[in-house]
Amino acid sequence: MFNHIIVRKPGCSVVDGLTTAKLGRPIYAKAMAQHAEYVKAMESCGVLVKALDADEAYPDSCFVEDTAVVCEKLAVITNPGAPSRKGETRAVRRALDEFYTDFEFIREPGTLEGGDVMQVGNHFYIGISTRTNEAGARQFIDILKNYGFSGSIIHLKKLFHLKTGVSFIGDHTLLVAGELIDHPDFAEFGKIIIDEDEMYAANVIEMNGHLVIPAGFPKAEAKLLAAGYATKAVDLSEFQKIDGGLTCLSLRF
Ligand code: CIR
Questions:
Q1: How far lies 167's CA from each of 18, 101, 190, 247, in Å?
Q2: What is the pLDDT of residue 235?
Q3: Exposed/middle/buried for 1, CB within 10 Å: 0-12, 13-18, 19+?
Q4: Ligand 1 touching residue 14 (CB < 6 A)
Q5: Ligand 1 near 244 CB (within 6 A)
Q6: Among 34, 48, 18, which residue's Cα sits nearest to residue 251?
Q7: Which of 58, 63, 119, 161, when mutated, tests ligand 1's pocket best, judged by the most ligand atoms within 8 Å of its CB?
Q8: H/E run at residue 6
Q9: Cβ distance 55 to 8 under 8 Å?
Q10: What is the predicted pLDDT for the residue at 247?
């Protein structure tokens, strides 16, 4: 059960967000409108929303998920692998003070971004990507052990973040795409496969019995509806242009 989310409003500088996608620059006004719709969709799943003010100094700071990993027992403040994003953690740390007493930190030379972390019960899967390195993943696993959790590493070949290609949607089921479809570490899960041309739809949020999904991916949505999931679709086209998926726009706890 999730009770809270933290989001951060995009600043005008969101148009300069880091990107590998070749989809053009985000339109600021549209990004703001989509962000507001995202917040509404999450509220309708029964959570209280804390919205941080935009910070123009950090074009990617609306993607709060990368700056912390939050769970029942603690908050781990990350060390983002992208140099331009490292300073984003300060405001998120302050915002989490209201909710957590136990904080841990990923430190140099370790880097870790929350988009590379997927929690399934007491276990955390950690992607090694261009943003998260082995040292960061090892530090994170050591922290987890101290709190009774476990962690394991998944080496990514092409995916940007781990959760770019996989989401846990409850009932021992994953939504999975690309290089992760046949990954041995996920062999025991039930799977809903997302086609390569709808890859963006592999990143979804299971939230209190609802599945928040990106709008505009009809094959993925049809598969989820057929499997009995209650979906809420949100258009995130402006965030997709800068590699941002659904999960990266919030911290959920
Ligand atoms: C970045 O490159 O860091 C941002 N433009 C996108 C971050 C997306 N984060 C995520 O999926 N967790």
A1: 23, 28, 12, 9
A2: 98
A3: exposed
A4: no
A5: yes
A6: 48
A7: 63
A8: strand 4-8
A9: yes
A10: 98
Dist CA 103 CA 135 (whole Å)? 19
Q: Is the CB of 161 under 6 A from ligand 1?
A: yes
CB contact at 8 A, 124 and 74: no
pLDDT on residue 174: 98
Joined together, the tokens standing for residue 142 give 């050591």
Share of the chain above pLDDT 70, in %: 100
Q: What is the pLDDT of residues 27-82, one digit of tens each?
A: 999 999 999 999 999 999 999 999 999 999 999 999 999 999 999 999 999 999 99
**CA dist., res. 151 & res. 68, Å (int):** 16
From the CA of 113, give the closest atom in ligand 1.
12
- Number of the ligand 1 atom closest to the C-alpha atom of 80: 3
Q: What is d(CA 8, CA 63) in angstroms, rounded to the nearest whole number?
A: 7
CATH no., domain 4-252: 3.75.10.10
Atom number of ligand 1 nearest to Cα 116: 12
What pTM did the predictor assign? 0.97
CA of 226 to the centre of ligand 1 (A): 30
The set of catalytic residues is: 161, 248
For the chain, the structural domain boundaries read 4-252
Q: Is the CB of 88 under 6 A from ligand 1?
A: no
Write the Ramachandran bin of 208: left for phi over 0, alpha for psi from -120 to 50, otherwise beta.
left
Q: Residue 18 — pLDDT band, cuts 50, 70, 90?
A: very high
